[in-house]
Amino acid sequence: MPRLVRVAAASDVPPGTARELMADDQVVALFNVDGEFYALDGVCPHAGGPLGEGTLRGTVVTCPWHGWQFDVKTGENCLNRRMLHKRFPVKVEGPDVFVEFP
Ligand code: FES
User: Fold this and answer.
1) Which of 81, 85, 89, 101 is deepest in the core (most CB within 10 A)?
2) Is the pTM of this model over 0.85?
């Protein structure tokens, strides 16, 4: 049964920024794209880099370790669209951001 876990206050992650956090025993990368929140598995599939500490430009996050890029809306790797990184549904209720875990 899916679990909805509060991960942050919306005000803690301003538009255009990313945040690494732990929730439900997982590293999660939370992104704010113009007020819309998205969440990916925070561990980069290349070599385990922290995607939540990456640079966000538009909907694309760049991993700080070696520069792999992912679309935070779809989880697609920007060089290989068939390589999908794990995403989590996000809900905003009032001032709080929640991530849904399977
Ligand atoms: S660990 Fe992310 S690009 Fe290498």
Assistant:
1) 85
2) yes
